[in-house]
Design brief:
This protein is mostly helical. Helices cover 76% and strands 4% of the residues. It has one domain. It has a two-stranded antiparallel ribbon with strand order 1-2.
């Protein structure tokens, strides 16, 4: 499919339109998530489909599988945020409990180990560079998006951990726009984390005052 490779040249490097537009939408998702709008999820769905096309063209199966997973998680998150809004005045963000954090960390560690082994032994995936890095990004992105769908403040931190590996992997794979966007993500994610953390503390303090009143 020739349209998968459609793009333009910048400093001698071929930039894919699917990679560019998909990453612009990914940046928009972070901005929308900071504002807790339901548009976060349909925009993420479209961006994932475009990045799936870019990954198929670049022969990065780990990233392609991640985008397929994102499509499913986007639909799940859309449902959860819609339900959360219908049951109250608005989407209430909160910090994860100790048990939830243990589950998230365990899912990240165990999931990475399992998926890495699949990448190593499934030849058709053709993971050319570091199956562990691909597995980590795949699982970490899934864990972060799931935590986001539950409106947990902690999802921002998981995204930071994913970004630390995502930048070199994207550049190594020739997805230069993705690499640059990962860097921008880092700044936006830190701002989002600060905003959500501040809001979650405000909600918690309000609840504590209501109980003691």
């Amino acid at each position: 499919m020739n349209w998968l490779g459609a793009g333009f040249e910048v400093f001698g490097e071929h930039i894919l339109w699917t990679d560019l537009v998909g990453n612009v939408l990914s940046l928009a998702v972070v901005w929308l998530a900071m504002r807790k709008t339901l548009w976060t999820w349909p925009v993420q769905l479209v961006g994932a489909l475009l990045l799936l096309a870019a990954s198929l063209h670049a022969h990065v199966p780990g990233n392609a599988l991640k985008q397929i997973l994102f499509c499913g998680l986007a639909l799940y998150g859309w449902f959860m945020w819609t339900r959360g809004r219908s049951e109250g005045a608005g989407l209430a963000v909160r910090q994860a409990t100790l048990r939830e954090r243990v589950v998230l960390v365990a899912a990240l560690l165990v999931g990475t180990a399992v998926v890495a082994q699949l990448f190593v032994h499934l030849d058709w995936l053709k993971i050319a560079w570091s199956p562990w890095a691909n597995a980590y990004i795949f699982v970490g992105s899934a864990v972060a998006t799931f935590a986001q769908s539950r409106a947990l403040v902690d999802f921002w931190i998981v995204w930071v951990l994913v970004d630390l590996v995502g930048v070199p992997l994207a550049l190594k794979s020739g997805l230069y726009v993705s690499g640059a966007v990962y860097g921008i993500f880092f700044v936006m994610v830190m701002v989002g984390f600060r905003n959500w953390l501040r809001e979650s503390r405000g909600v918690r303090n309000s609840r504590q005052k209501a109980v003691t009143a």
